[in-house]
């Protein structure tokens, strides 16, 4: 009895059992937060209104994840491909870290959340970098959930750069080719010492990985939902966790 988390699933729109096992909570959850634009369009709002609501969902889901004992939450906030969007939209997305710092971070600090960032700094405006650095710095001693933003991130670029760096180390004699295994190669990726995600969630009904953590997702359970990211509630999140808990992970074995 005490092994179950009670009181979930209050929303009528989501058919959900009311219990999550505390024994099989995914350690690391990664999310492709998709559908902000369509959420806004459905309401006759500009796309940036969808991104603003998406930022609110970030806080909501971080708190929900922390509540059930998830230790790492990696969120795909901006891909290396997103630069091709209209200028206004990119500008707005680049201002979100500032808004997040101002409006949402204090509540997460109270929850002992530690903010981290993966992706490339090059190309990001100074004000975006400053906001990110401040969020990382203000939370660096926190020991709770790791909230890891993937911003200006792309998985192929990450792997290619990892390959180049490991090649340089091999040429310099710091690494012997025979030593290079999966674990060592992982340390050359941006996720470095973070364990691979156990569960990947993608909202909005799309079922693809969009250049997100391709190496790290090798054995991850995938969960797709039609719900747009700004609508993604605590109950939707718990439903994903429940589904994950019903899966049997075999890692290629029987
Ligand atoms: C995809 O939806 C979403 C994004 C490209 C941006 C996601 C960013 C956030 C939710 C906020 C992140 C918060 C911080 C603090 C960085 P889309 O625009 O592709 O939606 P569509 O497919 O419906 O057009």
From TrEMBL:
InterPro entries: UPP_synth-like, UPP_synth-like_CS, UPP_synth-like_sf. GO terms for biological process: polyprenol biosynthetic process. GO terms for cellular component: cytosol. It comes from the Bacteria. Pfam families: Prenyltransf. GO terms for molecular function: ditrans,polycis-undecaprenyl-diphosphate synthase [(2E,6E)-farnesyl-diphosphate specific] activity; magnesium ion binding; manganese ion binding. Binds 2 magnesium ions per subunit. The keyword Manganese does not apply. Keywords: Magnesium, Metal-binding, Transferase. The active site is at residues 34, 82. SUPFAM superfamilies: Undecaprenyl diphosphate synthase (SSF64005). Substrate binds at residues 35-39, 47, 51, 79-81, 83, 85, 202, 208-210. This is Isoprenyl transferase. It comes from Paenibacillus psychroresistens.
